Amino acid sequence: MIDTLSLIFLITFVICYFTYKYYIYPLYLSPLCKIPGPPPDHFLLGNLMQIIKSEVGIPHIAWAEKYGGIVTYRSFLNKPRIFITDPKALQHVMVSSVYDYPKPPGFIHDLKPLLGNGILLAEGEIHKKQRKIMNPAFSFANVKEMVPTIAKVVHIMKDLWIREIGDNEKSQIDIMPYLSKATLDVIGLVGFNYEFNSFSSKNELAEAYTMVFTPENRRSFLLRLLSNYIPFFNKLPIKFNIRIKEASRIIDQVSNKLVTEKLDKAKLGELEGNDLLTILIKQNEQTATKDKMTKYELKNQIMTFLAAGHETTSVAVGWALYFLSKNIEAQNTLRNELLEAFPYDKNFIPTFDQINSLEFLNCVVKETLRVNPAVPLTIRTAKKDDVVNGYMIPKDTPIFLFINTIHRLPSIWGSDASTFKPSRWLDPNISSIQTNYTYIPFLTGPRSCIGNKLALNEIKVMLAILIRNFKFAEIDGFEVKSKLAISLRPDPTIKLWVEKVI
C-alpha cells in the first residue's frame, strides 16, 4: 500500500511532468519558441478555440501580417504548429526539399480510406514513379479531347434546371447536389469511360461521397480532433466512424470493379479509348517491370481520381456561382462575353480553344480559386532537423500551408484581398503579384496537382454553359459560410435564385 509521502511524491511528479511537457517546454524551451507568433489564448488549448470559431485560414491572415512569413501558434496541449506564407520558405518546403517534407502519418491515415494510397498521398520514390507513369494521361492533348464530354454532361444538368424552373420566372435551386452529380458523371466518363448516370438513378457512390464531404459541424470536428490524440478512437463503434467506414467500403468496391474490368479487357487485347484509366494502364504496360504499378496501386489511383476529380471541381463551381450571384456586374460581364462567343445555340459544345480564349471567364475562375481555393490547406512534417528562413525546425514538426491565407494577404493582394474581384486579373501589373508562391490553388513543384489542366477546363466549361443559360441571384436571408470537410465546402449548402436567359 502506498504511504502518504509516496503518494504526494507521485502526484507532484505527475503534475511537474505534465507542466513541463505541455506548458514549460513548448512555450519557453522549444526551438520553435524563437519563431514569432500569437500568444496562446488558453493554457491547454493554445490558439485552438480561435481557429475552431473561425472559417479555415482566416485567423492566420492577421497573424501572418503581424508576425511575418513563418509563424508559430499552439494547438491542443500547446503542441506547436508552424505555418508559412513567405515565398522563400514555401519554395524550400514545396520544391527544393519537397521530399524532406512528407505529409504527416496521421493525415495520411485519415485520408487513405477515402482517397486510396494513390498519387495524392504517396511519398518519395513511390510518388516519383507514379507521377512519371501518370503524366501522359493528363497531357494537353488528352484534356482537349475531354472538353466535349464535359459539356454534354453539363447540358443534362442544365436541362434539369430548365425543367425545375418550368413556367415560373425563376426558381430557388440548391445547386450543390446537382454540381456534385455532374462532376461525378464527368469523372466517370473522362476517367474510366464509365456511365454513373447520377442524374437518372440512385447512385451508391454519390451517396458515399455525400456522407464523407458534408461540411463538418462543431461536434464532428472535435471528434476528428480527438482521433489524433486518443488511441483506437477511429475503431470505436460510434456513428461518426461507422459512416466513414461504410463510405470507404463503397468507394473501395467501386474502384476495384472499375480497374478489374479494364485489366480484363487489356488481357484480351480489347482495351480502347482515351479515358484516364485506359491511358494509364497502357502507359503502365510500357513501363519497366520494377517500376510498374500493381493492380492495388491502380485501384488506389482510381480512388484518388474519383474523390479529387469530382469533389474539388463541384465545390469550385459552386463558389463561383455564389460569388457571381453577389456580384451582378461581374456576372453580366461574363454573360455578355459568352453571348458574344456563343450567340445563338444554347446547347453549344465549346472546343478547348474556344473556352480558353474567353478572357473574363478565365478571370472569374482564377479569382474564385484565389478567394476560396477548393483545397485550402495541406500539411507537411519535417522528416529531419532543418533550417527554414534562419529558424531551426526540429524533426517531426508539422508545417501547415494555408493556401487561402496566402491568397488573401493584404500585403500581397492589397486592401481588397478578401473581396471577389475578377477584374483584378485584367490589371497589366498582375504578373508582378501572381507568382508560383503567392497563387497556388493547385500547389506548386513536384507535388502540384497532376490534374490541374483538366480541373480548370471542367470549371470553365461548366460556368460557360450555366452563365450563358441562367441568371443567378442570392436569396435574401440565406447565409453561406465555408467549412473544411477535406475540401472547402459551403455550409450548409448553396441555394440561389435561378432564372432562364431568354
TrEMBL record:
Name under which the protein is recorded: Cytochrome P450
Residue stretches spanning the membrane: 7-25
Coiled-coil region list: none
Matching InterPro entries: Cyt_P450 (IPR001128), Cyt_P450_E_grp-I (IPR002401), Cyt_P450_sf (IPR036396), Cytochrome_P450_Monoox (IPR050196)
Higher taxonomy: Eukaryota, Fungi, Fungi incertae sedis, Mucoromycota, Glomeromycotina
Binding-site residues for heme, renumbered to this chain: 449
Entries under SUPFAM superfamilies matching the protein: Cytochrome P450 (SSF48264)
Cofactor(s) the protein requires to work: heme
Keywords (A to Z) from UniProt: Heme, Iron, Membrane, Metal-binding, Transmembrane, Transmembrane helix
Keyword Disulfide bond: no
Family: Belongs to the cytochrome P450 family.
Gene3D superfamilies: Cytochrome P450
Organism expressing this protein natively: Glomus cerebriforme
A GO term, aspect molecular function: heme binding
Highest taxon of the lineage: Eukaryota
